[in-house]
Amino acid sequence: MNIQALHKAIHDDTLDVLRRKNNDYTVGKGEADVFANFKHSEILGISAGTGIMVRMIDKHQRIRTFVTKGTLQVLNESVRDAIMDLHNYTALLHGWHHGCKTLEQLIEVRKILYDNASTLLVNPLIPEIPDLLSKAEQSMSSRVDTIMLLAIYTKIAYKIQEIQK
Description:
mainly alpha
């Protein structure tokens, strides 16, 4: 599967996951507050946006472990699951920065994010995964460029797909 097709497949697959997890993590409130679970991190003095990024770093580290060791110990959570989660967390972070309040607003903003990230995937030269992970870390540590992050995570998925062939 080429990178554009992979990007679309991940985008399509993650939409259903986003909807279902939104229901599970917002106590079934649905569109009432798409960030309800992330706002609970404010109890600890951590903003919801930072809470999203902490979860992203967890998934990022799972990918780094897979790339370094070639396997993961938790077998019912694949590296693809981690990439899909990163796509959704990136969309959530993007939605948070753009003031989304409902799931439907988030889905609209998510589509624009996907389209913008697609334009960054036209370059056929894709760096190796460690370089992509470093680039993602740099993006997270400075002003977060969610469009770039989404493209990077698609490139990582593409490289992992090549490894697993």
